[in-house]
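Weekly structure sync, notes
Attendees: PL (lead), two postdocs, one rotation student
Agenda item 3: pending single-chain targets
PL asked that the sequence for the first pending target be pasted directly into the notes so everyone works from the same version. It is reproduced below exactly as submitted, 197 residues in total.
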Amino acid sequence: MKELLIATKNAGKVKEFEDLFGELGFTVTSLLDYPSIEDVEETGVTFEQNATIKAEAISHLFGKIVVADDSGLFVDALGGEPGVYSARYAGMEKNDEANIQKLLTNLEDVPKEKRTARFHCALAVAIPDKETIVVEGTCEGMITTEKHGENGFGYDPIFFVPQLEKTMAQLDKETKNKISHRANALKELVPVMKQLF
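Predicted structure, written out during the meeting:
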């Protein structure tokens, strides 16, 4: 059985990875299955560095192939904020609602056409005794002035995807798993995974 360990305790991400990798025939486990494992400190200054740090640390611990992602939101009008601090934008405790409110407050005076943004995802695959592989994906959109939709997590309720005329949180998971930054990174990863297995 092809097994992948996902280096995250974020239930929303785990579900997305289960859906995405399940289609490729992988069984997915995550750090939710190992609650005693402490979070790996993300000391990198880029998504790529943080994903690599997490993947390599957990792979070393378990001796398994580990996939880690680091992802977040770049808002052009805020000079790229929140960027690598997306999960902790409003404080060290990860709080989606507080992060959304802080972002909306910081964009209060920004007109609709200047609220361009993109989700960015770096995926790192750490393989015991081999070089870590990193791929990236993005998804372009706009930041709304208020929340719409109940699905997803993080900034999804305020991230509007123009070609679909919906926020990420208004999309069903099948649609999101075709167009999201994580899905786009995974598309880059598929040929790599096929070579490994």
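Discussion points:
- Residues 2-196 form a domain with the Maf protein fold (CATH 3.90.950.10).
- The first helix runs from residue 11 to 22.
Action: rotation student to compare against the earlier draft before next sync.
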